[in-house]
Amino acid sequence: LSEETIRWNPSKEEWSIMQVITHLNEALPYWLGEIDTVVKAPGSQWGRGLQDPARLAAVENTEHQSVEDELKKLSQIKQDVQTKLSVLSADTLAQESPHRNFAKFGNKSVFFIADHFIDEHAAGHYNQIQRNLSKLAK
Question: Taking all residues of the chain, what is their mean pLDDT, rounded to a whole number?
Answer without folding.
Answer: 94
